[in-house]
Amino acid sequence: MSVPPPARIVEGLAGAIGNTPLIRLRRASAATGCEILGKAEFMQPGGSVKDRAGLGIIEDAERRGQLIPGQPGIVVEGTAGNTGIGLTLVANARGYRSIIVVPETQSKEKLDFLRMIGADLRLIPPKPYRDPGHYVHTSRRIAEELAAQGERVVWANQFGNLANAAAHEETTGPEIWAQTGGRIDAFTCACGTGGTLAGVARALKASKPDLRIILADPMGSGLYSWIKTGEVKAEGNSVTEGIGQASTVPGNLEQGRALIDDAVQVADPVALEQVYDLQLHEGLSVGGSAGVNVAAAIAVARQMGPGHTIVTILCDGGARYQSKIFNPAFLRERGLPVPTWLE
């Protein structure tokens, strides 16, 4: 048994965010003749890749003087859940309050976790982005109202705040480059805000311009069409949370468009097959977005041929979706396959 080197001592929560391992995905690699590696972001303190964005956005607000360490402040955000968790934990560590606006359709596990860690959770009905009641617009109005009352407040605005992508350009991308020793041929990742894909793309392409950057997109999102045709056109639907956009292109992703070489569309049954396969055969419990990412990495590997190295993101853990993609009743209602061990 190989023994990892002893972990270093870090300073608080911020010091524990990042530096996640790259895991060789044995079955995906064997099936394609490529090295398919997953960045284990489910091992972050808050359980997801969004810890990086939460830290980056709050540190940027502090540099701008919008928040001052040691003084009262409020962080407001509209989120599918994981960014809210990351922001709340960093806000707790810095002494700020957090108000998190979430569509009530998100998984019970994420909502319970947000309550548990002290977020002021505001649940609202799901609305399309064009509706003023959409969770992003609602969070912006709350921040504006608090600012008008004299509160020191920052609207995190993960979709348009370029500090999101900058956090990945400064940390995730360089980590991947160092961990692979520069032996990487493609990177694939799904997009909610686009921060991970755009930031990692900038970092990796700065070192290797011909490296391929591939957007992975679930059904029900229009980003695949946007990359392929220039038009945001959504078809179908998906049970995944926090990824895909039906009608808009987030600012973080738009800023990175020139770096994206192609897109892969992944249907739910294909993504869930990877989720369940990783759990049953490799002991890796991940959420639906990681399934989309791994399925896309396999598709890219088959396009490129054996001998290449493809890296993707294992965004969060499966326990966050126990009531959904690991719930036989939920799966059957949507005509999705139920793993034999759950039946």
TrEMBL record:
Alphabetically sorted, this entry's keywords are:
Amino-acid biosynthesis, Pyridoxal phosphate, Transferase, Transit peptide
Q: Which GO terms describe its biological process?
A: cysteine biosynthetic process from serine
Indicate yes or no for the key word Amino-acid biosynthesis: yes
SUPFAM superfamilies for this protein: Tryptophan synthase beta subunit-like PLP-dependent enzymes
Coiled-coil regions listed? none
Transmembrane portions of the chain: none
Which pathway does UniProt place it in? Answer: Amino-acid biosynthesis
Q: Which cofactor does it need?
A: pyridoxal 5'-phosphate
Q: Does the keyword Kinase apply?
A: no
Q: Which residues form the Tryptophan synthase beta chain-like PALP domain?
A: 15-316
What InterPro entries does this protein's entry cite?
Cys_Synth/Cystath_Beta-Synth, P-phosphate_BS, TrpB-like_PALP, TrpB-like_PALP_sf
Q: Which GO terms describe its molecular function?
A: transferase activity, transferring alkyl or aryl (other than methyl) groups
PANTHER family attached here? CYSTATHIONINE BETA-SYNTHASE
Its protein name is Cysteine synthase A
Q: Which organism is it from?
A: Belnapia rosea
